[in-house]
Amino acid sequence: MPGDKSISHRSVMLGSIAEGITYVTGFLPSEDCVSTMSCFQALGVNIERPADTELVIHGVGLRGLHEPGDVLDVGNSGTTLRILPGILAGQDLFAILTGDTSIRRRPTGRVVEPLRLMGAKIWGRDDGRCAPLAIKGSQLKGIKYDLPIASAQVKTSLLLAGLNADGETEITEPSKSRDHTERMLQLLGAQLGIDGNLYRIRGGQQLKATAIDIPGDISSAAFFMTAALVVGNSLLEIGNVGINKTRTGIIGALNEMGARIELLDLEGKSNEPRATLKVRSAHLKAMTIEGDIVPKLIDEIPVIAVAATQAEGRTIIRDARELRVKESDRIAALSTELRKMGADIEELEDGIIINGPSNLKGTRVKSYGDHRIAMSLAIAGLVADGETTVEDSECIAISYPSFERTLLSITE
Ligand code: S3P
User: What confidence category does residue 412 fall into, taking pLDDT thresholds of 50, 70 and 90?
Assistant: First the structure.
């Protein structure tokens, strides 16, 4: 599997504000991660790229970023848009962040509000609720803040602002979101207090550069795990998949649906576990996904919905309102497009209900410019009768440029 997107972003961000040289291997060469890299280059960081998946980052230290000469373009990357303000708010510079049409519709109030409580000077459209955002660096102070929704982007933004703030920053989240930032901060020598869903960080700690090897992205592997399950007589081994337990909700969910996914060659490197996954076709049954598990598989819900169209019974997915504000409104996109292919789907305000199994039929479907919708529909196309055309599929390059090549290599 190509590198994990979340960890690739963080390797550039933390490598840039560390002291010394960070050598990154397994970097994901996708549009989103390249957007993050370009932003940090514009902020004065020397980043060499000896190979597509390798970076050499010359860290500038905690407060060493330079004022960019132009507007910073985050492209389609929500992770960059939410985390960068936390890094920039405590630097001595002025910066403007913007991106594509989809990113300018996505909510930013969730980071702007708590950063303002820390003393950050941030402005944006609709009083900071949408990009473009403008940031004038200032001296931040630590706060105590309870996140209203579980979000790794918001948690990361506040932890990194806290790293540059006076005193201690204490954050709690309602359920645990992915913990790659915490792991990487610890790898780079930071002291972090973690007690369940409560996080504490003391300001002024310098990060020490080191080598970071990034595991493959389980969110990308999810498309092929599902493909192997729903296409008869399949057997697939997927190597180098990150199996951090804040991300493996997909394995648990598919196993509960009747898959028997095996984990082989377990290994730990750069504070992130990884393994080879062995997946076979299976007779799937419906399940309910709700509550604390949702943040651990939020990005995989589109492809879980495809698996559910082939499962016996009523699959219920709820507590997933966040899907409405991802790269597209994923609840509406999935309901509309899978219905066109013959699935029996009901749209809920915070999820979907799928009655299966359905005989899908190939047709023209839309991606809404959303990479995960495009790839999920391509996997649905594998089990559909006839031909499926996914319109606007170029967006797949946002997270998985080699998706089509891999898909062709595993199908006959
Ligand atoms: C991400 C966190 C999640 C996830 C996104 C990547 C990250 O978003 O959906 O694809 O890298 O921190 P939220 O923080 O909005 O839940």
Answer: confident
Q: How far apart are CA 327 and CA 337, in angstroms?
A: 16
Question: Best mutation site among 111, 175, 177 for ligand 1, i.e. most ligand atoms within 8 A of its Cβ?
Answer: 177
Model confidence pLDDT, tens digit, residues 286-312? 999 999 999 999 999 999 999 999 999
Give, in order, the Cα–Cα distances in Å from 390 to each of 13, 187, 380: 34, 41, 10
CA of 294 to the centre of ligand 1 (A): 12
The pTM for the full model equals 0.98
CATH architecture of 5-213: Alpha-beta prism (3.65)
Average pLDDT over every residue of 176-203: 98
Helices (H), 119-212: 125-128, 152-163, 180-187
Establish whether residue 299 lines the binding site of ligand 1, counting it when its CB lies within 6 angstroms of any ligand atom.
yes
What SS3 state is found at 381? Answer: helix
| 3-class DSSP state of 157 | helix
Q: Which atom of ligand 1 is nearest to the CA of 9?
A: 11
Is there a common fold for 5-213 and 218-411?
yes
Q: Evaluate if residue 90 carries a pLDDT over 90.
A: yes
Domain chopping of the chain, boundaries: 5-213, 218-411
What is the CA(89)–ligand 1 centre distance, in A? 20
Choose one of 5, 11, 153, 304 to mutate for the ligand 1 pocket test, by most ligand atoms within 8 angstroms of C-beta. 153
Question: Ligand 1 centre from 145 Cα, in Å?
Answer: 19
Q: Give me the pLDDT at residue 348, please.
A: 98
pLDDT at 8: 99
**Percent share of the chain, pLDDT over 70:** 100
Report yes or no: 80 and 126 within 8 Å, Cβ to Cβ: no
Whole-angstrom distance, CA of residue 41 vs CA of residue 43: 5
Q: How far is the CA of 299 from the centre of ligand 1 (A)?
A: 8
Q: Cβ(225)–Cβ(277) under 8 Å?
A: yes
Q: Is CATH 3.40.50.1820 the right assignment for the domain spanning 218-411? A: no
How many other CB atoms are found less than 10 A from the CB of residue 383? 23
For 52, counting Cβ atoms within 10 Å of its Cβ (0-12 exposed, 13-18 middle, 19+ buried), the class is exposed
Distance of CA 180 to the CA centre of its chain: 11
Contact criterion met (CB below 8 Å) for 32 and 205: no
